[in-house]
Amino acid sequence: MAKQARPNLIDPQVLKAQSHPVRAAILNILSEGPNNPARMQKRMEGVSLNLLCHHVNVLRRAGLIELADVRMHGGRKEHIYRATKRQLFDLEEWLTIDPKYRQPIISGILKQISEDTGRAVAEGKFNLLPDSHLSRSPVELDRRGWQETVEALETALEDILEAHARSAERARESGEEKMAARVVIMQFPIGREDEGEPGDGADDAPQV
After folding, report:
1. pLDDT at site 11
2. Per DSSP, what are the bridge partners of residue 80?
3. What is the pTM of this model?
């Protein structure tokens, strides 16, 4: 199967449309699959349905989401929306983004990760399957090692997205119910725990 092409999301108007925290939350929810405003609003604390619908319209005009279906329920219309593209940036695209738009994107992803993991733990599903993966790997890397890690994670992400696509194809043929899951990949620099401590008088402390 050919690898999926990454979308180009560097248009300033598109970035502005997705940088608002409510719109970022809508995009995160729709990345899981089609949904309607009422169900999305229930997942957002302190956001009214009218406000959410306003931001849905902003995203729709920007081409980031589209109306997938309209269903009738007791004489009332239910509008189902879906994301039009998966939000992925390569390095070249990310560097073209104004820094003021980068932080909302990062914050939105981290918030969704926190909510996903918290819900999985609360539901008792985090360790439902014995081969679920959880690891934290403190490492020390030179510049080449950093780049090698970047490339390894990019390859892993591409393989995961291909597995996602193949699963959808098989499920259409077999009728098997797919399992909702989350895969989180992170790599980031961090300060040392003992940074700034040398010279603080520790050498004069009593020896124990």
Report:
1. 64
2. 69
3. 0.67
